[in-house]
Amino acid sequence: MENLHQGYPTENLARFLKARDGNVSDAHKMLVDCLNWRLQNDIDNILAKPIIPVDLYRVVRDSQLVGMSGYSKEGLPVIAIGVGLSTYDKASINHYVQSHIQMNEYRDRVILPSATKKFGRYIGTCIKILDMTGLKFSALNQIKLLSVISTIDDLNYPEKTQTYYIVNAPYVFSACWKVVRPLLQERTRRKVQVLSGSGKDEFLKIMDYESIPHFCRREGSGSSRHSRNGMVGDCFSLYHAFHQQLYNYVKQQAALIESVAPIKQGSFHVDFPEPDPKDVKIAKTIESELHKLGNRKELSHTLRELKINGD
């Protein structure tokens, strides 16, 4: 429980209460289930269990594009996610889940307490900027993994994000968002803001330029692999300050435990919780919409080919 609340029990109990719309009984069950999940999966020690060898960790970082670019003017950490170009195809699902939980735990145990101290007030949430550059119909292949990650967050890290900003959104996202938005709870809908283009002008109102993710700094730049090469401040890179600090922190924690027992190679297995039926419906809706869009694209391509052959 102490690792969960980090010295702010009231504020953290309020998160669970908010996640269950003020129902005390439901919030209590959610909290107990969360604590049991943490105990059963040894989450308290996950920051002492590195993804090894380092080459494996590097490919995880290259295919799961997540990083921290800075802080908002209010002191909230700015988390950047390259949704469209994350392939999740270089390691096992367990490695990606382990990496995700480690970043959650590092945020909650190190980043947020540090921000609270630095800004002189309690800071328990972050801002997430989701870059949709490169989002394709092949995103269907990632739905299972993303559903697992989403369910883990919903059940065990509730109300940790103040606002989700969507940037560089292609048509495929707009089409899916149109059918998914009505299925979301009003509380969640209020958190999501779809911005035009890279959203740079909007972000300058709430954070300094240095804290804006690299894919928002130039209109149309996105987080493409070409634009990332050699770009200073690429917060997805293993060599960015955030990932270096996280990597070194896990190594230090592991060294303390390794002095007692050697660390085994292999992924850290976490029990995947059963998703909420509403989340299952959302995932199926996205899958269905992507299938429709993919079929339309194939039909359009076929018609174009027929026209060319006919000419």
UniProtKB/TrEMBL annotation:
PROSITE patterns membership: CRAL_TRIO
Domain CRAL-TRIO: 56-213
Chain ranges passing through the membrane: none
InterPro entries: CRAL-TRIO_dom, CRAL-TRIO_dom_sf, CRAL/TRIO_N_dom, CRAL/TRIO_N_dom_sf
Stored Pfam families: CRAL_TRIO, CRAL_TRIO_N
The name this protein goes by in its record: Sec14p-like phosphatidylinositol transfer family protein
Species assigned in the record: Forsythia ovata
